[in-house]
Model the fold of this input.
Amino acid sequence: MIVTNIESVPGKRMVEHYGIVQGSTIRAKHLGRDIMAGFKNIVGGELKGYTELLVEARHQAMERMVAQAQEMGANAVVNIRFSTSSVAQGAAEILCYGTAVKVE
Done:
């Protein structure tokens, strides 16, 4: 599966357009990560626990989007984007969306 954030796949021709596909996940903060983040807020630096959490969430959302595209018969997803929103105190949704197409 080709996944790209541009509107086409260089060197390929779009032959089918299947429409919008999306994948999402909702993740909550972890108490252990919150404690470590609190310490980092005092001394500064990267909040590695949260970085890992977001990397995992983006990966899972993208996997779900790709699975939806495969079910439609697509072999590529173009113009992908990520979005995030707060859904509850301490929980956020990561959404990955794009356009499922077939390229040759």
User: Anything to note?
Assistant: The longest strand covers residues 14-28.
